């Protein structure tokens, strides 16, 4: 098993483990959120039921008050009739019972004035009350009873108890409205009148939305969409509608798992970018260090070889042997130069691309199998691009060697040079080998990926780095055609 495959398996395993952890966390968080939402829903339902029950209680209380008011009103009417009988009694009628009834009045307020509008006496009048204003109120509410024979005038009104009952009822209604809105368990509430256009009270709702009719109707429609409005009939107030929505906590819980997922995704993505950057930086350092150390280690034996060639030349060794040795020494110098340039930005100069390719192809022809046909098309094109010839030749050599290995030393390799779009240059290296599966085309440029039993998986990774990072170009795998099974396309600016 090669390094790349092993790394990919570990990546998949760790990704699967992370996915399981994330999903388990999200499931647990969502479960908690759902349970809290259910509790909130229950609270809101109980609150709405309590409103209905309290409204019914208010209605029942109003009915009771009306019955008591009817009784108190009857007492007042009977008291007024008693005064009228005393003012004009039938002949022979015993008035003892009527006078006793009048003096037994303990609830109905009465004011009696003489002909000079002087107060004679008062009954059931609270302390501190202005009698003149009270007389006016009594006169407006009920016709005064005048005793013509003595010139006395009797003013009367509803009983004190009945007035207190009406005040208590009004306080009860106001308290119901206030508590309905305030004690809403953090639920946004809007109470409207029967027309649904006038807001009576509201709580936990944007005041600007309530003030604007269009926004109010939109708000009410949204509330009605989530919860059916509660209808209540309040005594003396008419029908009211209570609109309510999910609480702020419930709304937040609804979107909590989604927000959690987004945060986890963002955190994971940022962490991946950070660690990938660190990993690439570490790989770069290791790669640069190894390359420079290799160049340094090759320098000493290369100098020795050059000295030995000079010594052999002095001893009269055949010149053709020495020429081949010198050619290999020059080649080793090129390799050392290539390794020494790794890690530093190479100085790119405008070069004739055809000349660089032709030199590389001519160098590789005697170093590949005789069964391999290595051809170059486009040698007559005058195309220039900023290049580092040693590094660019290295890329071509790697691609040619990979093609030779893929064909098992038997087939055709073609290097094609042509003009690209917008003044660019295209270089294509194709072969007649078995080709590259589509599923593997993205992986082949990864460090460590190799199909060779003893390969390191660094050649294509190095090609990608030289073309894209050093030359600002692009290298990719293209589709084959005819007897061409695989193509590597290099784009230079």
Can you walk me through this structure?
This protein is α+β, with helices and mostly antiparallel strands and 493 residues long. Among the domains are: 180-248, no CATH class; 346-492, Heat Shock Protein 90. Helices cover 56% and strands 16% of the residues. The chain has helices at 3-87, 96-103, 131-141, 160-182, 207-211, 213-226, 248-314, 319-341, 353-364, 389-406, 459-470, and strands spanning 110-113, 119-123, 145-147, 152-156, 189-192, 199-203, 230-234, 238-244, 349-352, 372-377, 384-387, 411-419, 425-431, 474-478, 486-492. The strands form four sheets. A five-stranded mixed beta sheet has the order 10-12-13-15-14. A four-stranded antiparallel beta sheet has the order 2-1-4-3. A four-stranded antiparallel beta sheet has the order 6-5-8-7. A hairpin with a 5-residue loop joins β1 and β2 (119-123). α1 runs antiparallel to α4 (160-182). The chain is rod-shaped. It starts with a helix and ends with a strand.
What's the pLDDT, averaged over the residues? 77
- Any idea of the CATH topology of the domain at 346-492? Heat Shock Protein 90
Q: How far apart, in Å, are the first and last alpha carbons?
A: 38 Å
- The helix tally amounts to 11
Instruction: Name the helicity range.
Output: 55-70%
Low-confidence stretches: none
Assign the CATH architecture of the domain at 346-492.
2-Layer Sandwich
Shape summary: rod-shaped
* H-E order: HHEEHEEHEEHHEEHHEHEEHEEHEE
The fraction of residues in strands falls at 15-25%
Strand count? 15
Structural class based on helices, strands and sheet pairing: alpha+beta
């Amino acid at each position: 098993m090669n390094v790349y495959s092993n790394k990919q398996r570990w990546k998949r395993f760790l990704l699967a483990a992370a996915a399981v952890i994330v999903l388990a966390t999200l499931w647990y968080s969502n479960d908690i959120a759902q349970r809290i939402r259910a509790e909130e829903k229950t609270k809101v339902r109980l609150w709405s039921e309590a409103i209905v029950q309290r409204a019914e209680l208010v209605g029942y209380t109003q009915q009771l008050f009306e019955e008591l008011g009817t009784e108190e009103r009857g007492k007042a009417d009977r008291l007024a009739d008693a005064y009228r009988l005393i003012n004009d009694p039938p002949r022979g009628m015993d008035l003892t019972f009527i006078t006793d009834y009048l003096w037994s009045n303990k609830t109905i307020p009465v004011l009696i004035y003489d002909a000079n509008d002087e107060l004679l006496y008062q009954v059931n009048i609270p302390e501190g009350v202005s009698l003149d204003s009270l007389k006016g109120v009594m006169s407006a509410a009920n016709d005064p009873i005048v005793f013509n024979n003595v010139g006395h005038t009797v003013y009367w009104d509803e009983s004190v108890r009945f007035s207190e009952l009406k005040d208590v009822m009004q306080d009860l209604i106001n308290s119901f409205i206030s508590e309905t809105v305030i004690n809403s368990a953090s639920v946004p509430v809007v109470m409207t009148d029967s027309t649904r256009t006038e807001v009576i009270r509201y709580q936990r709702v944007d005041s600007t939305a309530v003030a604007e009719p269009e926004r109010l109707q939109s708000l009410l429609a949204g509330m009605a969409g989530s919860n059916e409005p509660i209808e209540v009939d309040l005594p003396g107030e008419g029908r009211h509608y209570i609109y309510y929505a999910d609480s702020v906590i419930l709304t937040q819980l609804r979107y909590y798992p989604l927000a959690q997922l987004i945060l986890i995704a963002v955190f994971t993505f940022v962490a991946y970018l950070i660690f990938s950057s660190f990993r690439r930086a570490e790989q770069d350092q290791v790669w640069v260090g190894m390359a420079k150390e290799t160049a340094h280690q090759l320098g000493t034996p290369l100098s020795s070889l050059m000295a030995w060639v000079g010594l052999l030349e002095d001893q009269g060794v055949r010149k053709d042997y020495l020429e081949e040795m010198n050619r290999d020494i020059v080649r080793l110098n090129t390799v050392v130069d290539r390794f020494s340039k790794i890690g530093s930005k190479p100085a790119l100069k405008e070069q004739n691309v055809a000349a660089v390719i032709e030199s590389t192809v001519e160098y590789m022809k005697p170093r590949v199998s005789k069964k391999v046909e290595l051809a170059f098309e486009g040698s007559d094109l005058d195309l220039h691009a900023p290049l580092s010839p040693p590094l660019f030749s290295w890329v071509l050599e790697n691609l040619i060697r990979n093609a030779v290995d893929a064909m098992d030393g038997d087939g055709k390799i073609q290097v094609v040079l042509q003009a690209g779009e917008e003044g660019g240059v295209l270089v294509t290296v194709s072969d007649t080998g078995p080709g590259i599966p589509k599923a593997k085309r993205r992986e082949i440029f990864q460090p460590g990926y190799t199909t060779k039993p003893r390969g390191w998986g660094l050649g294509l990774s190095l090609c990608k780095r030289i073309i894209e990072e050093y030359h600002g170009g692009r290298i990719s795998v293209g589709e084959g055609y005819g007897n061409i099974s695989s193509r590597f396309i290099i784009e230079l600016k």
